[in-house]
Every structure is written in structure tokens, then in C-alpha cells.
């Protein structure tokens, strides 16, 4: 880890009824630099904190304004005493990136936060990459069209036509698909040699 | 008749940490003897020596808390031993007093930390070293959390200063063959070497660095010092003749501290331990912690941990380290910083100091707070 995680000025919401676990948890969160709000009521979508810690033993579906791990709008840590698969599944479904077991050990808090936040970032980055790939797949027919057009207009083999398109895209630092779209729209004329 | 409170003293006096363990145990015992002069019969020590065996730490702590009736334990040197006994201390709602410098990243409500964490040793030490020796260190550590985390932090500090780590090596626990390591240091020629080795490993390394300096003057301590955050007076005898002279160490206390309190303390110390023995920060830290513990129990009128904790938050105790206060949020002591250079009289010359620095065990203030300026003595 190159940089020591720093939570100074972060806002955490603790969705759990007050007990000795939340008392200990709040102490640890505060000394790590968090401001902590505790409530055991549904979280509004307009009131998103930097981190949610949620009771996975008693939590119900409307407690968080999202469903499905991929939709988690911020890092989530589950507080869990139960070993029932349904509760583990619930924690995963709200996007928990780490679990803190109850009764809570103070030493479990910091590692869980660091891990949940890293996993949230990793998922976000993964999701963005998938979106980029999806966009490119959607535009793939344009590449095919551009190659066909180049083959016909310049009497090139399919391989050479593709090479021309590709080297132009690289030179302009554009995705191949965007290059093809510009070419087909007639806004870019491609030089002969790649 | 007033009740006598029992205080557990849990240190290993054999194994790689033997020298440090004896020093801590002696410091704790000496504090109990000294306090008994003023408050006779208030506390009584209960000693357990786990001899470096992890299970015996846990069993010892459990017996103290459950069978003997201790509510307070002074003890453990390593983070591994501390982490082992914390669940036992929590379960019996006791209070553990941890008095050694460590790598930070902990703040348990059932522990009082009077040893320095990195913002009290490593960070100010680098503030001193980087402008004077350069930003290209070599990192050496024991294959253990102390070595790993101190090296990671050092790397972070060096990156933040746009420097470069020239090499990093971790040695197995009691490894004393350091030839390859020395060869690599000679080849890379770093600005300085951060030494996070422990016990015999560290002694062998310091002896080999002395030989290297004699062979190649570019590696003498004045050009390429070896710096440590846990080397103290109690281990200097193990470094061999002329071993370690000129090398640097950070600590919250040195025997040579020129304060009236320390001069007075050394006179009382010499009566029991003789005029030759030097006092290390491990001895002084354990002494100060036990004194603080007894004073808090006395003021609170009970050894009940919650009452003692609240007493601690509101008091400042005069100790040989200087006035000590425990922060209610982190449970750590604010501690002074001193940088010492090993001299030829089995002690350290203090070359730079900082007044008490608040502990920041999770380094949350690191990037925002400006650090105070070092006072350089020589």
C-alpha cells in the first residue's frame, strides 16, 4: 500500500440500533477521522455519506436506496453476528465489501474499512471498463463498414484496409470505433499510408 | 485496612527480546518499589515470565485477570504478543499498559499506549535525516510486522519527498548472516540505512556496517548512518567493542537527558542498579507507565479500569520522560522526541529534540498538519 489510508473529514452513516457494538464502533470511527451519524431508518438517496455501515442481522430491503452490489453508491461495511446464508446474501446484495463480525473487536474496524473502500473503487473501475467495452461493441459494425468502404475505394485487401484504419486511429489517439465513425461520416479523410 | 491492588507484570526475559524484556520488567518493578515509599501497601506486583512463548502470554494474562484479581497488566514487547492478549484483557475488562515503541495502527479502549508510534519516532527522524543526508535510503527489517510496516511507512515518506528507496531487505527473525545485505548496501551506496532489525540480527548488522566503514570510509556513520527507532542503551553492550559508535537512534528518552528530573532519577537508580548501568527508554517507559498507573489508581480510589481511564484523561503526571498526558480518543501518550548518536561511553549524545508530540497512531493528521520544527542541539 503506497499511501496510508486517511479518512479525515469523511462522513459515515451507521444503520444499526445503539448498543455496545455501535458504541465501540463509533469510538474507532471518530478517532480515524470520520464524523458519524447513527440511525436505524432508511437512508435517503439524496443524503449519501462517504461510507455506510449497516446491520446485516436486522437490516431490511428498503434500508438502503439501492439493491444489487453493482448499484451501491458508496462503500458498504456489513455488521454481522448471524451465520445464516440469507443474511450473508443480504449483506452481499447491498454491496458490502467487508464484514465486521459481532461482537465487534476494535481491531476489526480499520482493516474492514480499508478493504470495503478498496473493493468499492475496484468495482467502480471494473464497471466503467465494462461500459467502455460495451460502447465499443455497439460501434463495431462501423469498423466493419469503414473497412468495406476502404477496400472498395482504394482497392485494398481487408487486412490492409484494417491496418490503415488502425494506424490512423492510433496516431490520433482515438478508439478504432470512433475513427471508423468519423471516416464514414466523411469528417476524416485517411492518408494512404498508415 | 485499605485494599492492596495487584498489578500484573508480563515480560519475557529470554529470547530475541531478552535485553528489552529485562529492562521493562526492571523498570516496572523499580516503579512499584519507589511508589511504595510514598504509598505503602497500595499496590503489589504479580510477575509472569512467558519466556517468549505466545501461549504463555495468553495464559499468563488470563491467570492474572481471572485468578489473581489484577485489573491492570503492564507488559508485552512485540505487537504479536500484545495482539494475542488484548482479547483476554477485553473479556475481563482489564487495562493493558503497553510501553514500547511500535508501528502504530491501533487504538484499543482497553489499552494505554505509552510507547511512541511512527509520528513520534520515524516521521521526526526522517525530518531530520532527509535534508542532511539525502533522500535515497536503504531499508532493512526483520520479517515481522515491525519491519514490514516501518519499511512501508519509510517508503511513503520517501515518495512524498520525491526521493528514492535504493533497496529493501527483510531478514528472518534470528538471522545473523548479513554478507549479501552488506554487499548490496555497498553497491547501491544509499544516503542512510533504516534498520528495523531486532536483537542478534540487528547486532550482527551493526557490527558488519562498522567493518564496512573501516574498509570503505564512505560508509562511516558520519556519511551513511544506520538509524533505528528501537535501539537503546540496554543493547549497546551486545554490539561488541566499538560497535555502533556514531550510529543514530530515535527515542522518547535517553540516559543522557540533561534535565533536573533525569539527574535526580539517575541518582536514585544508581543506588539500586549501580553507577555503571545506563537507563534506556524501555526502562524509563515502563517506570513512567507504572507510576502513572499507581497515581491514577490512588486518585481514583479504585483500580476499576473505567474509573482509572477517566482519571488519566484529566491528569498530567510528572515523569522522567517529562510531563505525560493520555489522550482520551487515542489512549496514547504525548511523547517527546530525541535523536541520539551512540558515543564511546555506552550511551547516546542527544543531537536533536522535539517537545512532546501528540500521538497520531493512524496518521490521520499527517497530510494536513504542519509539523513542528526540530530543535537541533549539535
From the spread of the alpha carbons, the general shape of chain B counts as globular
Protein structure class of chain B:
alpha/beta
Beta strand % of chain A: 5-15%
Mean pLDDT of chain B: 94
Order of strands across the main sheet of chain A: 2-1-3-4-5
Give the helix/strand layout.
The complex is a heterodimer of chains A (194) and B (378).
Chain A: E1 11-15, H1 20-31, E2 35-39, E3 51-55, E4 76-80, H2 85-93, E5 96-101, H3 109-138, H4 140-154, H5 158-171, H6 176-185
Parallel strand pairs in A: 1-2, 1-3, 3-4, 4-5
Helix pairs in contact in A: 4-5, 4-6, 5-6
Chain B: E1 5-10, H1 18-38, E2 43-48, H2 54-68, E3 72-75, H3 79-91, E4 95-98, E5 111-113, H4 122-133, E6 138-142, H5 145-160, E7 167-171, H6 179-188, E8 193-196, H7 199-215, E9 226-228, E10 248-251, H8 260-273, H9 281-300, H10 305-313, E11 317-319, E12 322-324, E13 335-342, E14 348-357, E15 375-376
Parallel strand pairs in B: 1-2, 1-3, 3-4, 4-5, 6-7, 6-8, 8-9, 9-10
Antiparallel strand pairs in B: 10-13, 11-12, 13-14, 14-15
Could you provide a short overview of the structure?
The complex is a heterodimer of chains A (194) and B (378). Chain A has helices spanning 20-31, 85-93, 109-138, 140-154, 158-171, 176-185, and strands at 11-15, 35-39, 51-55, 76-80, 96-101. Chain A is of the alpha/beta class and 194 residues long.
Walk me through what this model shows.
The complex is a heterodimer of chains A (194) and B (378). Chain A has 194 residues and is of the alpha/beta class. Chain A contains six helices and five strands; from the N terminus they run βαβββαβαααα. Chain A has helices at 20-31, 85-93, 109-138, 140-154, 158-171, 176-185; strands at residues 11-15, 35-39, 51-55, 76-80, 96-101. In chain A, helix 5 (158-171) crosses helix 6 (176-185). Chain A is elongated, with a radius of gyration of 25 Å. The model of chain A has no long low-confidence stretch (mean pLDDT 92). Chain B is of the alpha/beta class. Helices cover 39% and strands 19% of the residues of chain B. In chain B, the strands form three sheets. An eight-stranded mixed β-sheet of chain B has the order 7-6-8-9-10-13-14-15, with helices on both faces. The N and C termini of chain B lie far apart (54 Å). The model of chain B has no long low-confidence stretch (mean pLDDT 94). The chains are: A alpha/beta (194), B alpha/beta (378).
